[in-house]
Every structure is written in C-alpha cells, then in structure tokens.
Write a structure and sequence with these properties.
The protein is α+β, with helices and mostly antiparallel strands. It is built from eight helices and 13 strands. The protein binds D-MYO-inositol-1-phosphate (IPD) and calcium ion (CA) (2 copies).
C-alpha cells in the first residue's frame, strides 16, 4: 500500500518523536526508585516530543495549522487544514514505567479527519489510515473483529480519575456491560484503545471526557477498518463531544444500546 506524501510526513514525525520517547522511557524506569520520582522529567519529555513534531510538520507543510495537547493551537495560513497532535498519549503509564503509550497525529481537512497515525514505539506498532484507503498496522491491513456474540467480546474503556466528573456514569456502564460480555479492559491510552478496535483486538471501546487529540487519529483507524464510531449522544460529532462509542459491525448496535441505556 503506497502512503500519500502527507502520510509519509506524519509517519516520519511519529517515528522520530517515538525514538526519543523510548530513550527517555528508559530513564523513567530508572527514576521510579528515586525519592523525587520521574514527574518533572516526563513533563519535559512530553513537551519536547510535541516541539519536535510541531517543527517537523511545520517544515514539511508550512501553511497548515496545528493543535497539540502541550503547546496549544496555532492557526495556519491555510485555514482548511490542521494537524491534531497528542505527543504522548498514556502519560500515566509512561510515568509508571508501563510500556503502553503512543504518539498520535491526525490531519484534519475542512473539519474532517483525513489521515491518522497512532505509533506505539515500545512495540514498534505503527497504526495508520487514510480516508477511503483503509487502515494498516505496519504493512498489514487492519479489519475490525468479526465477533457477533457479546458474551465473547472484550471491550475497552477509560475510567475517570482525579477531578473527572463522570465516575457515576462509568460505574453504571460497567454494571450493565460486565455481565453480558467476556470482560472490560482499561489500559490507559485512548489512541491505542481505538487502534486496537481497528485491529480486532478489542471488539469495542467507550469513554467520556476525552479531547480531540486523544481520538482524532484513532477514530479514522476504526472507520477505515470497517468499524463504527458515534458520539455518546448520536446527534453530536464524536471528535467535538469527546464522549464516544466505537465498535465492530457485528455488535455495535447492541453495545451502543447498552452504553446509552436505551
Ligand atoms: C489520557 C489517556 C487515557 C484517557 C484519558 C486521557 P494522556 O491521555 O488517553 O487513556 O483515559 O482521558 O486524557 O493524558 O495520557 O495524554
Ligand atoms: Ca491523551
Ligand atoms: Ca498527552
């Protein structure tokens, strides 16, 4: 599968930042035992990764806009195109030395995500998709799972932490979902949760209180792999609402009904 010129730019940026993050991750593993802990070091690594990505993307496409979790938004000369970047998704995992985190880069054109990359450097798994061209992991084509029986399905979610306000809803979701399924996972990186749905590893995923940079690339992965993505409220745009349901074709309807409790 020949990737577009923009996709090559995105993959190069994700791999370059990923390489640096892997080096820093080794340091983080050492810092676990220090009294101060790795917190400040990780914040610096996170910001440095975004700066690196921003610079590479700007050099390659000087007219595009940019929005990143760490450094904020920058309008481009071309108002129709912008990069949406989470340099390190799964920060809490990274901070604790858990090798499950990713670089997420999406390109939006006229309000629609047209290309997405989610790169897991610790496993060297690069998930990527272009609108209308399918979804891939490294060289392999991705398809959502073919399961149709909820009781055989595994669903991923993100549980609210710290000041998040949706704990009551999440606990009710779990009470409805767990008895009907093979289980729920909470691995801690929304971009990879979506990539894993695209890869058929999870059968579905739901979460609330997300930001565009957590999910922009992952949403395209799922739909290009033949899956479905909707906002929790079906009238909303999933990217803007930050509360979404994603799944395979065989169980999405039942799964979405359970989550929405209808
Ligand atoms: C977080 C992760 C996590 C999700 C959080 C996100 P971050 O992103 O994607 O899985 O549950 O809501 O904020 O902070 O690690 O980039
Ligand atoms: Ca994130
Ligand atoms: Ca982040």
């Amino acid at each position: 599968m020949a990737a577009s010129a923009n996709m090559n730019v995105m993959q190069r940026a994700a791999r370059t930042a990923g390489r640096q993050l892997v080096k820093d991750f080794r340091e983080v593993e050492q810092l676990q035992v220090s009294a101060k802990g790795p917190g400040d070091f990780v914040s610096r690594a996170d910001r440095a990764a975004e700066a690196m990505i921003r610079k590479m993307l700007r050099e390659a496409r000087p007219t595009y806009g940019f929005v990143g979790e760490e450094g904020g938004a920058e309008e481009g000369e071309d108002p129709t195109r912008r990069w949406i970047v989470d340099p390190l998704d799964g920060t809490t995992n990274y901070l604790h030395g858990l090798p499950h985190w990713a670089v997420s880069i999406a390109l939006e054109h006229k309000g629609r995500v047209v290309s997405g990359v989610v790169y897991d450097p610790a496993k060297d798994e690069l998930f990527w998709a272009e609108r209308g061209e399918g979804a891939w992991m490294n060289e392999s084509r991705l398809r959502v799972s073919g399961r149709t029986r909820m009781i055989e399905c595994i669903f991923a979610t993100g549980l609210p932490f710290a000041a998040k306000t949706t704990l009551p809803q999440s606990l009710k979701d779990l009470a409805r979902i767990l008895p009907e399924t093979a289980g729920v996972r909470r691995f801690g990186a929304a971009s990879l949760d979506l990539a894993y749905v695209a890869a058929g590893r999870y059968d579905g995923y739901w979460e609330r209180e997300l930001n565009a940079w957590d999910i922009a690339a992952g949403l395209l992965l799922v739909t290009e792999a033949g899956g479905f993505v909707e906002a929790m409220d079906p009238a909303d745009n999933p990217l803007e609402s930050g509360a979404l349901i994603a799944g395979n074709a065989g169980t999405f309807e039942r799964f979405a009904k359970l989550i929405r409790n209808v």
